[in-house]
Structure formats: structure tokens, C-alpha cells
Design brief:
Helices cover about 30% and strands about 35% of the residues. It is of the alpha+beta class. The strands form four sheets. The protein has a five-stranded antiparallel beta sheet with strand order 7-6-5-9-8. A three-stranded antiparallel beta sheet has the order 10-11-12. A two-stranded parallel ribbon has the order 1-2.
Length: about 190
Amino acid sequence: MPKINGFEMLELIDQQPPVIFTTAFDEYAIKAFEKYAIDYLLKPISKPRFDQAMNKFLQQRNLKSTTEQEQTKKMLETMSPSPSLERIVVKTGSKINVINTDSLICLEADDDYVRLHTTTGAYLKNKTMAFFEKELDPNIFVRIHRSYIVRVDSIVRLEPFEKESHIAILNNNMKVNVSKSGYSRLKQVLDI
């Protein structure tokens, strides 16, 4: 796919369709099944293996029309997942923004969303903090509070705040609460 990969495309869809991932790389299989893939095909794909995946798909989804089956086959053959979370796709109205994780400064919990603070602005993503904590590189991003994940190199300084807590001042002048456990994690990453 030219601009976004298969995993990013799935994030943009409100109701997840049945998916059979096709790719030339076997290292994405676990991530594909975590995204509830029906099957995973490695290129080059043999006809018997493709037929097996399609039968599995048809059994699970009971597709009625052959036109729908053909459209689905064509869509699934073009998918190609990425190895890790290097970019985040955010849909804002009719626009699709592709945010490189290098531009992330901080992630903030915002009700059912996560507010992504970047060098170019802020965006809302319908994901959880736990998802981002798991998917982002833990050597670069640290969850310092139940409501905040920060890029370690965006921290300008840490200041004491109330009993056993701190405030992190970020390079975009944001002030972010640091919990006691978050401070411990931060000290490990910063080696202090």
C-alpha cells in the first residue's frame, strides 16, 4: 500500500472487517493474529494455501455473493503490515494524518481517547494509554503517570511537586504530572 500499511488502515475503520494478512515477512504474524486476523499468508503464496485461507474466511463469515468474495480477495492481497509502531494514523474529519513517532512529545489520556502532542500540534486517537505503552519503544517513551506517556528526550527538567510526586517540564513548555511509580520508571531509563 503506498502511504499507509495494513495495520494503519485497520485502525481507520470503525467496524473491523474480516482480515487475511498477506506479506513477504513472517515476523508480522503475531501482530496480525493480535489484530484478529483470520489467516496469514506468506508470499509467494501457493494456490492450495490461498484456497485454504479463503475457505477458512468463507466458513467464518458465510459470505453470500461471489462479487463480495472477489472484492474481498483483491483487498486482502494488497495488505502489507509494518514491523513496529513507527507512525500513527489519525483521522480528523475527512483528513488522514500520518504522524511519525519521532515527532511525538507526549501522550495524554483524554476520556476514551489519547491526545497526541507532537511538534506540529495535537491530535486525538481512539486508542488506550495501555495500547501505546505496549507499542511504543520503552527506551524512548515512558509512562510517567496514569494519564501521561512522555518522550524521554523531550523532558527539559523535573521539579518536586507535593508529597512524593514531581512535575516534568517538556520542551514544548508543557507541565506534566509524574507519579511516584512513574518517577521510578523515569529514573531507570535516565539512569539516575
